[in-house]
Design brief:
The structure is a homodimer of 239-residue chains.
Chain A lengths: L15 H10 L8 E2 L1 H8 L3 H14 L2 E3 L5 E3 L4 H25 L2 H14 L4 H18 L3 H24 L2 H17 L3 H25 L12 H10 L2
Antiparallel strand pairs in A: 1-3, 2-3
The structure holds a DNA duplex (30 and 30 nucleotides).
Chain lengths: 239, 239
DNA sequence: AGAGAATACAGTGTATACACTTAAATGTAA
DNA sequence: TTACATTTAAGTGTATACACTGTATTCTCT
């Protein structure tokens, strides 16, 4: 995704788009929720102008959708769309495997190993956060900025939905086991194995998510897992 | 890409982002060119506010880059980036082949065949326009909106650079021949062949572009192919 | 009470105005 | 002429203000 330094000149500001993007990714702002410009502006202590700019940027990223009435909402994905995005993620991520193996230094591998080890016994929310970082770090190693960018975008879009799966199923432990395998494949410089693992990683998670969606009434509802703190922010921003 | 109807409420406006996106894609606004808000606003007959929103949206799409000084410019890609994007395009496009074959109706195929036939003897600029439409149409048929979106984004980003190759090399006739083959593969419902052709299509074009870049001093300079009319618009918008 | 008209409200879109920053142009002294 | 200080201009960032639109609410009349 974009560099975190939003602008040199006005750079000391907390970067409105960044805050909204993270809030959406972490599920604090649930899919479908209206994003009222004035509320966000007040919450952030700025006028509506920079808020509008952030919303337009996020809309271009696909995280926000402007309705016909002009109102912005957190993009809500249909199950088929989530499915498609998981497929896209699998394709992009597995394609980066050779580059990752090629450019990763032993120090990189160690850092990743440590990161994954630190995730072993985290609860769902904290684990999801680290999980996102782990994959982003992997992408960064490939030194393919546009692949990483596209993949990061997709990861961000599906994250609210992934979190449902992580919190509900035994998904977390399986994914975590695969993370360890990925580190070993990386250490062994086995790019085919890494690609295979990344493909499998996505496909399994995708299937788990869809299975969960199928067996519950309200198919995919990240709102349900929003934390209490998250809810209060969401309520503050909501209509 | 986003739906063309930018907004219901203020929808009758010519959609500023749209105009800028097209201008960049077609090379009227050359990579690296400064995008002065006030100039664009005046040229479009609006204030800077909606212009800024458009620029932020385009920045999120990667077509525009905000410098450290806050100024926006048309994104200029390094040769490695163009190379990477061609690879990305090949990957995405070829992956859509089975879905395209699956969902295309005979009427769709006929329409595409006609479109391609109409391109046979066009000069470079007009051909490039139709070429873009042809591929977009192909993506649309796959009924995979997020794949199509990502691919369209990439196509747009590399378009100014592709045009250089089309105008300088015999690229156009080779690409056109491949287009005809794609139609036949599609008509024969041979998705493997279609995927192969799409891969080859990108890889060959990519190599041709890089070869051209290597043998010229100024590696990739789309400015050189901007038409006279384009230049005047660019100059008007430029600093 | 219920249907329809009039009003108030909530929200967006955007033009204007002003503060701030950087870089260029100008002027001045050695 | 060159180096340095000063002013000017060009550009951006954003707060405020106002116009517009749809929706809910209230009021009125039957």
């Amino acid at each position: 995704m974009e560099a975190s330094i939003e602008s040199g000149r006005a750079g000391q500001r907390p970067a409105i788009a960044e805050v909204l993007r993270e809030s959406i990714r972490q599920g604090m702002l649930a899919p479908g929720q209206p994003l009222i410009q004035a509320s966000i502006a007040e919450a952030m202590g700025v006028s509506r102008i920079p808020v509008r700019e952030a919303l337009h940027a996020l809309a271009a990223e696909g995280l926000v959708t402007f309705g016909e009435d002009g109102g912005a909402r957190v993009t809500a994905l249909a199950p088929e769309e989530v499915d498609e995005l998981w497929t896209l993620r699998a394709l992009l991520e597995s394609h980066m495997a050779p580059a990752i193996v090629r450019t990763a230094t032993p120090a990189d591998v160690d850092a990743l190993r440590e990161l994954v080890a630190a995730m072993d016994d985290l609860e769902a929310t904290a684990w999801s956060d680290r999980n996102f970082s782990f994959h982003q770090e992997l992408h960064r190693l490939a030194e393919m900025p546009h692949f990483a960018d596209a993949t990061g975008r997709v990861l961000t879009m599906i994250e609210p939905y992934s979190r449902v799966a992580v919190s509900v199923l035994q998904e977390q432990s399986e994914a975590q086991a695969e993370h360890h395998q990925m580190i070993e494949a990386l250490a062994a410089e086995d790019s085919d194995e890494l690609a295979r693992l990344l493909l499998h990683h996505s496909h399994r998670a995708r299937k788990a998510l869809l299975a969960y969606a199928a067996e519950t009434a309200k198919p995919v509802d990240p709102q349900a897992v929003a934390t209490a703190a998250a809810r209060s922010l969401a309520d503050h921003l909501g209509a």
